[in-house]
Amino acid sequence: MINSFQELSILLPEIFLLGMACLILVLDLFLSQRLRAVTFWLTQLSLLVTLFLSLKLLPDATAFAFGESFIHDPMSVLLKAAIYIIIAAVFFYSRAYLHERNMHKGEYYVLGLFAVLGMMIMVSAYSLLVLYLGLELLSLSLYAMVAFNRDSAQASEAAMKYFVLGALASGMLLYGISMIYGVTGELGIPAVSAAVAETGRDNIVLVFGLCFVMVGLAFKLGAVPFHMWVPDVYQGAPTAVTLFIGTAPKIAGFAMMMRVLVDSLGALQADWQAMLVVLVILSLAIGNIIAIAQTNLKRMLAYSTIAHVGFILMGILTGSATGYSAAMFYSIVYALMTLGGFGMIILLSRNGFEADRLDDFKGLNERSPWFAFMMLIFMFSMAGVPPLVGFHAKLAVLSAVVETGMVWLAVVAVLFSVIGAFYYLRIIKLMYFDPAEQREQINKSFDFKLVLSANGLAVLGFGLYPGLLMAWCIAALV
Amino acid sequence: MSAGWPLLSLLIWLPIVGGIVVLWLGERRQLMAKTAALLFAVLNFYLCIPLYCDFNNTTAAMQFVERYPWIESFNIYYHLGIDGIALPLIILTVLMTVLVVVAGWEVIQKNVAQYMAAFLIMEGLMIGVFAALDSILFYIFFEAMLIPMFIIIGIWGGANRVYATLKFFLYTFLGSVLMLVALIYMYSRSGGLDGGSFAILDFHYLQLSGVEQFWIFLAFLLAFGVKVPMWPVHTWLPDAHVEAPTGGSVILAAITLKIGGYGFLRFALPITPDASAQLVGWVIALSLIAVVYIGFVALAQRDMKKLIAYSSIAHMGFVTLGLFVAFAVATNNIADASQTALLGLQGAMVQMVSHGFVSAAMFLCVGVLYDRMHSREISDYGGVINTMPVFAAFMVLFSMANAGLPGTSGFVGEFMVILASFQANFWYAFLAATTLILGAAYTLWLLKRVLFGEIANERVGALQDIDRREFGVLGLLALGVIALGVWPQPLLDVMQPSVEQLVTHMLAGKL
User: What are the pLDDT digits (tens) for A358-385?
Assistant: First the structure.
């Protein structure tokens, strides 16, 4: 009995968040629209407490729960902390967006919290089945969120597309997991790992299982050639939801990759490495080249996401601890930059005007030099120009790749980055060199502007001093 | 007096902080913003005085060194230090920024605070490039520099500015990312995560095989060749120079081109000496094409700024020729190779500093005319000397320096490089020396068409001569041009030990 209490204590953050999500769900029913802010602040408070629980209350050492199907390790702590912080900012941005459109409902936060719970479970899962449960909890919440604006035909279409393709991907993943189970007879990650090491690479069913798992994972992350849903969903969903989908779930996706490929199927490294090389090159190529042709900023950021996912996968494919920590660093940095990019769209938008066309950014420097500068930071960071943090993320991944001896892959990656730089530069060109089309004042609340500014300064600050975050990422994987 | 002060950090960060202050003062307090910008620029200039006075020109070791761990997981240090090669370029940078701020004082009407701030931030980053001793730190300054320049050309540039600035950015970005891969490769060769190092001085002693050197050299050649720029990757320069505002052209020509030359000195020559020797024929061929062919191209220009831009490329051809010519000697087995190398490198350095002064002055002269007439077409002018005699005197002086007339700074560097090329091959020297004819041809012809003759139209007739502000800027540059031409010894003294050490290093090779 005592033992299981100890085990449960490892899940304290998850249990607390679940309880809060249910509480907010019920409480919100009794709140009038005027008091909706209570829901918002309660949600933020839950995230804050969960952050505290994750960081402070849990033991430093690695610990397991439920017969080693749930793990608490340094990697999970760092990734969860990043997820909470990113999502807290997402809620700040979303509140303004939803409020302006009379869509400010408690369900958004409740669904968001459940999605966070799903991500936490993905990050901490130490059994393939638990991992799948976390993924589904996240995905189902996201499907509902995409359709949040039920009057919008475009959003409904996006939700439908997302749901069908997402379900297909989940099916693939589950099918792959079942094959792995069929060969090894295990679902727990350490057990699978041991069994796979014993069976070796020659087992054809195992390799097939890996293929299906890989397809499922690539779908979820949006790597080419499984990326078709990404631009449509990004564009169709309300910006507040795109913001959600585009940021923290990629961090959870990175964790999922790590748990499945590295922790469970490490013995098949040569196989998944070869598959990842193809995914990486295609993602970098398609992501960077197609983005040039976009006129919609959300769509452009969708393709840019695809290119960034290529970089994250490139870190994983090195198969070295350096590469994993580089990929981890990259995914956190990516979430931070994307958060800012979508935050800027929300900043400029108002009811009836989405500000998601590239042209809507024209002449921003005349309207608001400060926020034009923030966007400049985000764009140059995504392009990987120093001294912004995006550069250090690319540097970390590239050095891991070169260290593994794949200099050619590094060269390919940087060449595509140059192509990618073009479309980020175009935004800066619109903001700084073109005359303004919109003359409206930016009418967002002070706290919104504060969070967005903090976001931009974080990208700059981590760029000037990336050592700390990088050291955390390395420490998390030792 | 200034011992113990982190002088280099101050030089880098003071203007950047100044830029932020100027931005904060904003467009509404224009005069305050401008004054603050001038104040910071001048303050930085004063900082150069202890830098020069305390500089010990008897040693080749790095001085004013600062070294703190920065990104410990990758062994990256905030490592600054200068030798005799970097010092003159830093002083040049600081001086040019003051001139640019003064030159833009009344001319810039749009977003003045942002204009001044961009140049201040640019100054800090450029000094960072010259002072960085960690290759990643160098790379960060090297790349970050593109951001303010991109904005400068794009906001305050001419009609075709967007095309020009995108081309400028992408060209330079493409050149440098491959260098980044080369740097990472050398880091991984030097031990990677277990004690590897990004320090430039460690790279100098890193053993690299011939094949490795070959590829790394190509990466450097692309990165710095684009910056210099060498033929055939020079095409961004005429566009960028022509479209940039006067201040932007001045900084581009006077400093950023030098960063290419400096990169060769700091990276390519000492890190990949054997590959440099192996590929020297190509580099010299490209340099001579720049000198001769681009000289002819300059002759055909109708736009004043374009003409000066092409003449910059031709002059920078001299720099790359001087840097590499020693290897051609070594392969021909001439005994005093190192003497030639010394001459060539020093010639290249003098040429860089001199070109910094001369090209800046030429662009400022065009700027003076452009501010009055809003035209860069040579055919719109004629007989300017009648209405602007003082200005004409300056322009004649700078044009003579541009053509390499003895007694001006332009002559010293070119003469040294030609002398060095004679040791290598008569034809190298012969082709290089054609510049004395071509350069004279295009500059004198420019003078004839713009300054002399009858007053071409009534707009020229209505021109006002330069005011005190413009006189001050041009006068200062004229002093520099003549001083360097008559008495270049202080400059040579400062860099002597550093260049000597570089020569031994690069001629020894690594194989």
Answer: 888 888 888 888 888 899 999 999 998 8
Nearest residue of B to residue A416, measured between CA atoms: B174
Beta bridge partners, B132, equal: B80
3-state DSSP helix/strand/coil % of chain A, to nearest 5: 80, 5, 20
CA–CA dist B73, A424 (Å, integer): 29
pLDDT for B1 beyond 60: no
CA separation for the pair B56, B497 (Å, rounded): 10
Tell me which residue in A322, A432, A467 faces B151 most closely, judged by beta carbons.
Answer: A432
Judged by DSSP in three states, B63 sits in: strand
Q: Where residue B446 falls among pLDDT bands split at 50, 70, 90? A: confident
CA B320-B323-B329 angle, to 5 degrees, is: 115
Residues 6+ apart with CB under 8 A from A211: A176, A275
Interface A-B: count of C-beta contacts within 8 A: 98
Among B260, B125, B13, smallest CA distance to A386 is for B125
State ipTM. 0.88
Domain-by-domain residue ranges, chain A?
A: 5-476
Which DSSP letter does residue A350 get? B
Could you tell me which residues come within 8 angstroms of residue B485 by beta carbon, excluding any fewer than 6 positions away?
A: B354, B401, B406, B407, B408, B409, B410, B411, B412
Cβ distance A356 to A298 under 8 Å?
A: yes
With an 8 Å Cβ cutoff, are B143 and A429 in contact? Answer: no
Cβ atoms of A80 and A120 within 8 Å: the answer is yes
Cα torsion through B301, B305, B306, B307, rounded to 10: 50
How far apart, in Å, are the Cα atoms of B355 and each of A449, B229, B250, B396?
47, 14, 11, 16
CA–CA separation, A431 vs A433, rounded Å? 6
User: How many angstroms separate the CA of residue A132 from the nearest CA in chain B?
Assistant: 34
Given a cut of 80, whether residue B330 has pLDDT beyond it is no
The Cα of A403 is separated from the nearest Cα of chain B by a number of Å equal to: 6
Output the average pLDDT for chain A.
89
CA angle, corner A324, sides to A470 and A135, nearest 5?
Answer: 110
DSSP conformation letters of B339-367:
HHHHHHHHHHHHHHHHHHHHHHHHHHHHH
